[in-house]
Amino acid sequence: MKSMSELSHEFLKGALHRQAFCVDGTLGSGRDSAFFLEQGADLVYAYEVCEELYEQSCEKLASPHFHAFLKSHEFAGEDLEAAGRCVDAAVFNFGFDPRTIAGSCTKAESSLKAVLAVLDAMKIRGRMSLVFYMHEEGQKEYRLIMDAINCRQDTDLLECRRCDHPGAPILVCVEKKKAVQPSEKGVKWN
Ligand SMILES: C[S@@+](CC[C@H](N)C(=O)[O-])C[C@H]1O[C@@H](n2cnc3c(N)ncnc32)[C@H](O)[C@@H]1O
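^ thats the input. predicted complex w/ S-adenosylmethionine below
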């Protein structure tokens, strides 16, 4: 059976094309960004807070189509506004990089800010995949983000989970279906 990460790539393929602008909210070892680049994306913005992982991945993925930021994804909104273009596809693979002891775990509140900022910058029929891990902070992250997205009226949502492994990662596939008015967002974040 495919992993949630592989399934997330299958879902994202439907929003990718040669001019695609993509966001990798959690760069880590760079597998998700590498996927976007392999698919021929025009520009990938990626965020990472761990300097070691950031440097390793920047070296591995160096390309005029790849731009990484050594900062928290919660500040992505400013970069996306400055980029002046809509996001076609985004991925957030939450938690920590299991191969790097120095890596830090994503936090529910900053993850929520990042997801909502990317969703706001996303084009209609743009796609975002969210992979949650069910440790304590991951469960909080999942509930906070799902409550916020469920309040909005601009997305279609599909959730994939292993019925036989309750502790296994959960994939949430999000497709933007319309532009949202500020009053419809249903959640305040700043
Ligand atoms: C599960 S890993 C990501 C895997 C990665 N996408 C890949 O393909 O290899 C999660 C990553 O998020 C990073 N991270 C934690 N908090 C973050 C934040 N606030 N902003 C951006 N990245 C963060 C961690 O350091 C870790 O490398």
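Residues 26-32, 47-50, 53, 72-73, 93, 95-97, 103-104, 106, 110 surround S-adenosylmethionine (CB under 6 Å).
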